[in-house]
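name: query_chain
kind: protein
chains: 1
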Amino acid sequence: MSELADREWRLIRDEPREGAVQMALEEVAAKTALEDDLRTVRVYSWEPSTLSLGYRQDADTVDWAYCDREGIDVTRRQTGGGGIYHDRTADISYTIVAPAAEVPSDLMDCYELFCEPILEGLERMGVDAAFASVEQASIYQPSCYLRDINPAHDVVAPAAASGDTRKISGNAQYRQRDVVIQHGSISYDRKPDHHVGVFDADLEPEIVTDRVTSVREEAGIDREDAVDTLATALGEWCTAEAGSWREDELAAADDLADRKFGADAWIRDREILEAGEQ
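structure:
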């Protein structure tokens, strides 16, 4: 249980959705946190498969033909970092949304607080994981899982290994309208061909298996059990009540997905369309 447990929280065990809608729901949750005094933790997955770009990532790093051929959507996150390939089976994603006034103003302290339930969830799954203790040099900077490993927010396993740890989770956060939004991706399984195929670069799939591990490899737990374990850890961390999206929130997210996270103007150029432009 965290220091935030005396506030009102909801835990959403979300259904698979398009990547653009998943990103839009985070901004909707931010509005709910401010206007309705209701904070959100959730677990979710992506369908169809999606490449999420970092906020400042060059769209030219994407192999658009590969994504089109393989049925992989592309969106752009509000957070920085490299691109991440997500799908319904190999990726487990989460979100934490709370008013900025209630959390540490120092970025590193906030990461430490918000990653408490992520590390707890991994431990309960049987994964020996921890924040990276040392930096590792970048292999391919446009890829989240292949760029430099940062001890501030990258989680590796096994934690006890001296120099043989591999990345298992990437986490990022941003502040918007006085709200902190943190989201992250946990590698449940690996899809090396897609992890490198989505980028317009000459990369071999083997570099993914050399750099990245997974919950399945480390602990052998079923994905459904892993998702449930993470959701439970998130809920207990803030004593959240089971919840769901309201109809008005879903409608707002669909509109924002159309104007922003699913629009070429945002995905390629970080431009947000006004209502009626899409």
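note: The first helix runs from residue 19 to 36.
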